[in-house]
Design brief:
Chain lengths: 696, 696
């Protein structure tokens, strides 16, 4: 997987014989052509002359089950290579070194790539330099549309291969050669899913491009560079990953301001020393407030509210610029084929007029209301149960410490917190599996809808899980010192745990257990290198990463005013997080498939919701600030009046936040104009088309 | 304006000679053609054979200034009749009985109507029954596209004439015949505006169709029918008016539930008697709360919150169905010509690629921030000033009553309220003019943006103006009986004042002052009938109507829990309001021009905002309810805790409201599918078009 691999790939595939031009065959001739071309040692042949190229780049590896018989493999290769009108995927397949081996390398010819680019609604640079929705018929006016390696990014090419494979459907009832009759395909069955359940296909994974990967990792995490190579990340891993890293980047830089403010407040108020004393002596429950510290508390509370609003608004603008730049402004997922897991009765889609499975909206709503919601509720109940146990434990330990007062009992003081955090993390893991099954059961048509509902489920739970205790301390116990202690321990423990589980363990496993087994030399056959990639663990997705950020953001915007060092700790954490996440995705896991996306999706909403909740939380914490209460009592205000004032301030601030959110446009002016231009031209085109179809 | 008029119009115009077919002239020949056809007594001739029809229906009346010279009129008629490529409006003009008279009747030929229908983005029934965005090239596939009277509604045809006239721009520098040199037209000047400022054109008004009007009024307000003929209203007055009446209708029926609830609460709690005593003896400040009355107060508060949410969500769904039905789902205003009042430097519009005036966004923002906002603030200050004076007066009068205690002083008790209401209404009138100039100065490109900003300005002010006192009483004085008294007097006085100023006075003026002067007989020339219409006062727009509804809705959703009869009073008011508004728009004013719209625009937002504020207000009024306070004190809760509880309840309710708003889709499922279908076909078409333009 090191230096020399890059040339190998190109060399390997070019040595496996370039494509020969072949005349376009009318559909009648196709069967004979297929049977003639798929048994040779090279790539399957392309069906149109424009797609013939000197080199074929292996994009995706299909790993077959061990017991798969050669005739099944031959049938599969034929299927992958067959034109779409014959029910194939119109891709290029390569059987590997050995026709009976357990891998198939898949690539895509130019025409298939271009047609899928149109189908996905990707935008590409037009000849006048603007990004325009790609149109196959107009392909010659798009820049570089003859050089697939430049025109489409590696991630896009690989996703297209997956998209085509996932979209394979049986055109008629069909027996799969070499398989028992129980796996006979019915009309419109999803072939890839069926083969997966028959264990013919064990895995489908995109292949790394060693040279590109090397360049990327050098620009990304090897040096001391400050900026991330986001465009290259988008090119190599796709826009989902690129959006995550862009957000992480933007967020980390935005932390600078609160970090500096927090640091200076902590420094000038002697907070630093106090915290140190606190954490060593664990005497957090005693009141050691200084006047100046509390005034820092107030500054931070107000600052947090403003910061989180401005941060989110600016991110939205940045996000839409990125989406324009990466050509995902105009994705057409609603109009594409449904996701493979989607099932329903065959019918005519009222939007596109195509025949495809339909699933009534009300039935989905019913499933959500009667199954998903109660199950999610149950888990939220478990969170509350955990919290109750934590309080019980806390009380017990305090009592113990009072009775014994030894070093042991002092250490025990932290036990309930630690146990609770562990319980919380475990529960989260179980819940994630449950949420996946629930969302699968809800049967969403689009990949993005599936992702959205899954994420929302996990998110609600996570929010509850991580923040229930903090809210309880802040709002019911109204105990600022305890909140501070808890926040500090959460920040430090969670971050340590995360860094260890996410990076250190996989790194050690990779270095000392897996790697020696698959040490590779330059002479290894190409096939073994592919196989090595498939032995890496699968990338666990961006859930965990986003949730980590969301929880961080929650700590910061909701409660940071009681612990000024929050932003500093987060900044340090994130600077390492960027590198460790980058290292992880490049080296420790298989290359993941990610669909092109236009924004962070539901995560953006989640961050926005948090930034609204932060107003409530900060107003409340302001109210709890002893300094403010003193001030008010000096001025002769009753506690009811202080409370009324706080409620008033809160409502005004929420109003200000809403007005700010409305006033700052979500997309820069120039993007809006581009988008309207696209809408305008497509409207114009509709009118043109009608007459054309009329005349013809 | 009565029975026989209908036939007259058709007869009158058909007797004025039908159009003769004429070969299409290449642009070189046009001048000679125009000079030959415009001096005769009939309509100007159409330029394409398909537009020739037996009858020409006069749609719009252009009223000229008294001093306009015949050559100017001839030039204007020529301009109206000239094809668009020669800078004309491609309409049909008729000089009236007398070539030197002061009116021009304007109609539109088929081609102009159809092209404008496409330009405006109106949807019309396609041959398969679906509504589709109209396309001129595909006109034959739309139902009834050869019968303009069926295909387009009267309102649409008239709006199109206005749209074409307003869009007239000088193609080169041009002296207008018969006018001084100071009125020379510059290249790209808006001709209609220039002629207006030169007093050549005094007025442009759509003409009534007496027969249709008679049918409409019979179906609308003459009988005892419960349902309004909304489709006919849309056809005759356009979708702006139709949306107002649909909303009024929907709102009035929705009032039934709160009215029944309010009535039963008032009845069972003896509230009715109490209120009567209250209003007669003006002893509202004394506490006469019954236990049962207060519990009604609580029921109503909770009910108001839920009702206002559900009401708004259901209305949004109804609104989108109506917009589909009326073909305004897909309006293309952003892509059309800018509104006539818009000015700026000539440039290429980046969206449509057309040359038109451009005005930078930031300059508009600057004008809003530096001029509009301060002026609006000033007026809000005047409202506060008025409120302070009101309180001062109130205190004085109370003192007086205490000193004298006579019938006179008792009457005087109501004086401050009445004076304040009058002041408030006067201020509102002045403000409306100011708001118009401000919005004109902001220089919005689209008519709808202009309307939106104007409405928002008026709305903020109105809200402040009407509700400042009520909020002050509820939140600062915390005086429920005063609030109740105030609300009752506002409801009764405002409604009486509105009904009188809106209907009774215009009716009396119309019947006894204007009408006798313009009594008409069947033998009157057509021209005089037109002239009579132009003597009616102009329709003042829907502002006042919507604001009345908004204020009503505010009383109801914000404060009705303290006065259960609110909904009943409003229901009675609205049942008469529907008829009086209908009568007013049909009989008392000129027929107004209204652009097609897809919804109520900014008004919908305003109602939604109010329904959120209602949560805050109702929670607060719940808190003030003495019964609740007793209850809590019995259970040993401190006032701080009650307040905390109320704040918690408020936040939860706002959350519930938000979730409800997200969960109930804003458009019914079938509309969403239709809309997506339109988007899909237009996306497909874009791809088709590119290749077409490539090939040609």
């Amino acid at each position: 997987m090191s230096k020399a691999g890059g040339d190998e790939v190109a060399g390997g595939s070019s040595s496996e014989k370039a494509q020969q031009p072949e005349d376009e065959t009318p559909s009648g001739k196709v069967p004979s052509k297929l049977s003639a071309t798929t048994t040779g040692p090279g790539w399957t042949k392309v069906s149109c002359p424009c797609c013939v190229s000197e080199q074929v780049e292996p994009l995706v590896l299909v790993k077959l089950g061990e017991k798969v018989r050669p005739e099944t493999k031959r049938w599969l290769i034929k299927l992958i290579g067959a034109p779409q009108k014959d029910g194939g995927a119109a891709l290029l397949a390569h059987p590997g070194e050995d026709a009976s081996g357990d891998i198939i390398a898949v690539s895509a010819p130019r025409c298939t790539l271009l047609r899928a680019t149109e189908e996905l609604g990707l935008c590409k640079p037009y000849r006048n330099g603007d990004m325009e929705a790609f149109s196959y018929n107009d392909r010659d006016n798009f820049k570089d549309s003859d050089k697939m390696e430049v025109f489409l990014t590696l991630a896009e090419r690989q996703y297209i291969v997956k998209y085509e494979l996932d979209g394979l459907r049986a055109q008629r009832d069909l027996r799969i050669p070499g398989l028992s009759d129980s796996y006979t395909l019915q009309h419109r069955d999803n072939i890839w899913q069926k083969l997966g359940s028959a264990r013919v296909i064990v895995d489908t994974l995109p292949l790394h491009n060693p040279e590109q990967l090397k360049n990327l990792s050098e620009a990304w995490y090897c040096g001391n560079q400050l900026a991330q190579p986001l465009d290259s990340v988008n090119g190599y891993f796709g826009s989902s990953v690129a959006f995550y890293f862009s957000f992480l980047d933007f967020y980390t830089w935005s932390l600078l301001l609160p970090a500096i403010l927090g640091l200076s407040i902590a420094y000038f108020s002697g907070e630093v020393q106090k915290e140190m004393v606190d954490s060593v002596s664990a005497s957090g429950v005693t009141h050691v407030e200084h006047d100046s510290a509390v005034s820092g508390h107030m500054i931070l509370a107000v600052f947090s509210m403003l910061w989180s609003t401005v941060f989110m608004e600016l991110w939205k603008r940045r996000s839409s610029s990125l989406s324009y730049r990466w050509g995902t402004l105009n994705l057409a997922e609603r109009f594409a084929e449904p996701r493979p897991g989607f099932h329903g009765e065959l019918g005519v889609n009222p939007v596109t007029g195509r025949v495809e499975p339909l699933f009534p909206e009300w039935q989905r709503d019913l499933r959500m209301a009667l199954v998903s919601v109660p199950v999610v509720g149950l888990f939220l109940g478990l969170v509350v149960l955990g919290m109750l146990c934590f309080y019980w434990g806390e009380a017990q330990v305090q009592q113990l410490h009072k009775d014994w007062d030894s070093l042991l009992s002092q250490t025990l003081l932290y036990m309930p917190s630690v146990l609770h955090i562990v319980y919380t993390n475990m529960l989260a893991t179980v819940y994630k599996t449950v949420a996946q099954s629930l969302t699968e059961y809800e049967n969403h048509r689009e990949e993005s809808a599936y992702e959205k509902h899954l994420t929302t489920k996990v998110l609600v739970f996570t929010f509850f899980n991580y923040f229930a205790v903090l809210f309880h301390i802040a709002f019911f116990k109204q105990d600022v010192p305890l909140l501070r202690k808890r926040l500090a321990s959460l920040l430090i423990v969670t971050q340590l745990v995360n860094q260890v589980t996410e990076v250190v363990i996989p790194f050690l496993v990779d270095r000392f257990i897996s790697s020696p087994q698959r040490a590779e030399s330059e002479d290894d056959p190409q096939e073994d290198k592919f196989r090595n990639q498939s032995n890496l663990p699968a990338f666990p997705g961006l859930f965990a990463e986003y949730i980590e950020l969301l929880v961080q953001f929650g700590y910061l915007s909701l409660f940071s005013c009681v612990y000024p060092l929050t932003a500093v700790l987060l900044l340090i954490n994130n600077l390492t997080e960027i590198r460790s996440d980058a290292y992880k995705i490049c080296k420790l896991f298989r290359k993941p498939f990610f669909p092109p996306v236009a924004n962070m999706g539901v995560w953006q909403t989640a961050f926005e919701v948090l930034s609204f909740v932060s107003v409530v939380s900060n107003c409340w914490l302001l109210l709890l600030s002893p300094r403010l209460q003193e001030l008010c009592q000096e001025n002769g205000m009753s506690s009811t009046n202080i409370l009324l004032l706080a409620v008033l301030v809160e409502h005004v601030l929420i109003l200000v936040k809403l007005i700010l959110a409305v006033l700052i446009p979500d997309e820069p002016d120039w993007i809006r104009k581009k988008r309207e231009h696209i809408e305008y031209t497509s409207m114009q085109a509709l009118k043109q088309q009608k007459i054309q179809s009329e005349e013809s």
